[in-house]
Specification:
single chain, alpha+beta, 3-stranded antiparallel β-sheet, 7 strands
């Protein structure tokens, strides 16, 4: 028994205690003890105080016993005999196909190397820790991206359901219209030709409305960012000011210093980056409609397409240069937006 080689160490994943033994007869034995098994061993050794005993104390006890060679082996059981007590700590091992003696020797060599080249090992550990942090960060980013994709899929499904309901409604309306037409009977050929001539084949997404109701406070704020005092106050009666007159520079400074609501604050912050690659059209959509994927046809006061196009026309002075009537332009823009699919990116 005195020639049996025994070692206890953490497993490679640091989740279990690995105990192994190699006998003089060439028998190899080993076993891994997870937290549940170690709890049972600790509680048996410390008795009623087991649950209150911290793990630091328990493992320090094990280390002290091994360092003082108070370890025995008999019948496949490693027995630790702490000083000043008759209670022993036992680890039952099982036959193993591993070459335990070689494994123990390799562990001792590694242990010796660590103590001799401590700085090198610490440097390697630091690099490994840095790499682990980077990998964890990448994993977290991928998890966020996965969640965004799942959210997008969920929203697309929701929008598809809305489209299917809308399609069913339109098909029902079409069936009713065709039924009424059949009931009305056949008209004379020239009347049919006149009727066909009056049918509008284009989509009219707003129905009989000329435009959506405008939020004049938003329009005034957007216009004021790009229109000078000369084009604004001095051209109050100009056609490109037929809906709202922009703030003067001094008025705009006061307004933007303390915007009265979250919506205008968010729209203003987005417009500050209208010339940048990271212009946030989704945030603008959310500010206007409350959601970044609302159907463009049903938004009450327009969405990201309407606000962005309105801003760009004044940003490059196109309404001023070509004397375009602001009301006609916004009516047209409102109809264009209403005909788009519900994707603010487009």
């Amino acid at each position: 028994p005195d020639l049996t080689v025994i070692m206890a160490r953490l497993s490679s994943d640091a989740q279990r205690l690995h105990v192994s033994a190699a006998t003089p007869e060439g028998q190899n034995l080993a076993a891994d003890f997870d937290e549940k098994a170690l709890v049972a061993i600790r509680d048996e050794f410390y008795g009623s105080q087991g649950k209150e005993t911290p793990w630091e104390k328990f493992f320090f006890e094990l280390q002290n016993i091994f360092n003082r060679s108070l370890v025995g082996f008999k019948g496949g059981i490693v027995e630790l005999a702490p000083p000043n007590t008759t209670t022993k700590i036992q680890f039952k091992l099982n036959p193993s196909s591993d070459k335990v003696q070689e494994s123990i020797l390799a562990s001792l060599v590694n242990y010796h190397y660590i103590h001799i080249h401590l700085k090198d090992v610490e440097k390697q550990v630091a690099e490994s820790t840095k790499q682990e942090t980077e990998v964890r960060t990448q994993a977290a980013d991928l998890e966020k991206e996965e969640q965004h994709l799942k959210d997008g899929i969920s929203r697309n499904k929701e929008q598809d359901e809305n489209n299917q309901r809308r399609l069913a409604e339109l098909q029902q309306q079409l069936a009713i219209a065709e039924s009424e037409k059949r009931k009305a009977g056949d008209a004379v050929e020239d009347e049919e030709e006149d009727e066909d001539a009056n049918i509008c084949r284009a989509r009219i997404p707003l129905g009989k409305k000329h435009a959506k109701p405008f939020d004049t406070n938003i329009l005034k704020l957007v216009k004021s960012k790009f229109v000078s005092d000369r084009e604004g106050a001095a051209a109050e009666d100009a056609v490109f000011n037929s809906i709202v007159r922009p703030y003067t520079s001094s008025e705009l400074s006061k307004v933007t210093a303390n915007l009265p609501d979250q919506q205008r604050q968010q729209v203003w912050e987005v417009l500050l980056k209208i010339d940048d690659w990271d212009y946030d059209v989704f945030s603008l959509q959310s500010a206007m409609s409350g959601d970044d994927h609302d159907s463009l046809a049903v938004q009450t006061h327009g969405g990201s397409l309407f606000v962005t196009m309105y801003a760009l026309m004044f940003r490059y002075g196109l309404l001023q240069k070509f004397r375009i009537d602001e009301r006609i332009f916004t009516n047209w823009l409102s109809v264009v937006e209403a005909g788009y699919h519900p994707n603010p990116y487009h």
